[in-house]
Design brief:
This protein is an all-alpha fold and 451 residues long. The chain has 16 helices and no strands. The chain has one domain.
């Protein structure tokens, strides 16, 4: 399809599938590359001579804190960017710029608050999240450095969606690719050559995210952007802040509840199995991040297209887009499920090859991913709710799968029929099937009918 530059940013024209693919492919690549920030750290740390397994486990215990930090970035990014798309569809670019400016101010406030709070409470939190006397030093060392550059992480993650929501998917992809490329170079230098270990892994990540943040802010301030950052838009407006936070609560809640489940899961695994099972779950969560990213990138790429058409009153095109998202997401989820069920050992060896950890990780991975393909329905439902500004439904189903179902199951199942460690592992597939179908069926009943 040939189109002018202007048409590329008007999502009411051309094929819905074409528009979604054009935006989502760079975002999928960007999301996958983004995962490399932490995944590469874990791979290097897991193969450190002598204490690789303990370093890997210690950094894994710190994941929930990092996830909570990312949640605040999502609160502003996933709340403000869809609102910008809707306002652009309505033709109100002034309000869209105000939303973007208010989101930046919120990110700065949250970033400063989380840095100071993190230093005050990180050690007791790490013990609560499953650290042991052997792994706490590694977890603390990683967080000491990471928190120092926390604000760069938040600015890069939180403002990049505003580039993508304007249709500049390749520029948004470069934000992540630049940072990840630097991280790949710096990791082995800092970890091994300079002998900094886990501190080096964190430093490589923070320096890379600093460059990404500078790239994002520079583009949004430049004349290339449709919506530009201006000083006049940075002053907080109560009404806009409420709208951003209300819609962003979906992404925020999903991240926080993921962190909550990791906390209870690590603590339960430490109680029933010890450091080996916490280390195995570190590997599994790393794999999960990788395999979920294409779905996340694809559905996030669809959000500006759905939101723009919804704002323009093109409901038929919105339905066409939803059908396409469902078809692609489910196909991908089934393919990933098959690979992880058939080749778990090959995947685990990328992180650590110790025989005992390998055996436990393979068993745990099969339990964790046995009903993974039902996550496709969760992603489709959540995407529609967020894209169309349905904040209440988006927030509820973010809470439902993890907080309402996941945490109670992790605490309850180990006591039933003496399941123990297998009860902890069984919680994830149960939440996948119930949460995924509940979210999707509600979307059909509430949104599809009205469209």
């Amino acid at each position: 399809m040939s189109c002018t530059s202007k048409d590329k940013h008007d999502f009411t024209k051309g094929s819905m599938a074409g528009s979604i693919v054009r935006l989502s492919l760079p975002m999928i690549l960007a999301q996958l590359v983004n995962v490399l920030y932490n995944i590469v750290d874990r791979m290097y740390l897991g193969h450190m001579p002598g204490d690789g397994r303990l370093a890997l486990t210690g950094v894994g215990v710190a994941f929930p804190i990092i996830t909570i930090i990312n949640a605040f970035a999502n609160l502003c990014g996933s709340g403000g960017a869809p609102l910008c798309s809707i306002e652009r569809g309505r033709g109100d670019e002034k309000k869209a710029e105000q939303i973007m400016g208010n989101s930046l101010t919120l990110l700065l406030i949250f970033g400063i608050f989380l840095t100071f709070t993190g230093y005050l409470i990180k050690t007791p939190l790490l013990y609560l999240f499953g650290a042991s006397s052997e792994t706490i030093s590694y977890a603390n060392a990683y967080m000491d450095v990471y928190l120092a550059g926390n604000i760069f992480v938040m600015l890069g993650l939180g403002m990049n969606p505003f580039i993508e929501s304007q249709g500049f998917a390749k520029t948004g992809m470069l934000t992540v690719v630049i940072g990840a490329f630097l991280n790949l170079i710096l990791d082995p230098i800092f970890i091994f050559d300079l002998n900094l270990g886990v501190r080096g892994a964190a430093a490589a990540t923070i320096l890379s995210q600093l460059i990404s943040a500078v790239w994002v802010l520079s583009f949004l301030h430049s004349k290339k952007a449709i919506l530009r950052l201006r000083l006049s838009t940075l002053r907080l407006q109560g009404k806009l802040v409420k709208e951003i936070i209300a819609l962003g609560l979906s992404g925020f809640t999903m991240s926080v509840t993921n962190s909550l489940v990791q906390i209870f899961c690590n603590a339960s695994l430490q109680f029933y199995g010890g450091d080996l099972y916490v280390g195995a779950m570190t590997i599994i969560y790393s794999v999960r991040e990788v395999v979920q990213m294409p779905m996340q990138g694809f559905t996030q790429g669809a959000q500006p297209v759905l939101g723009y058409n919804y704002g323009a009153g093109k409901n038929g095109r919105v339905k066409e887009g939803i059908r396409f998202i469902r078809r692609v997401t489910l196909t991908y989820a089934l393919a990933v499920w098959a690979v992880l069920m058939l080749l778990p050992g090959t995947v685990v060896r990328l992180f650590n090859g110790e025989p005992e950890l390998l055996q436990i990780s393979i068993t745990s991975m099969r339990w964790h991913f046995v009903l993974f393909f039902f996550m496709a329905f969760q992603y489709v439902g959540q995407t529609v709710f967020v894209s169309l500004g349905k904040a209440k439904q988006a927030v509820f189903f973010s809470l439902f799968r993890k907080a309402i179902l996941g945490v109670p199951l992790i605490l309850l199942l180990p006591h039933l029929w003496s399941l123990g460690i297998y009860g902890v592992l069984a919680a994830e597939p149960i939440t996948n099937i119930i949460g995924g179908l509940a979210c999707y069926c509600t979307m059909i009943a509430v949104v599809w009918k009205n469209l």
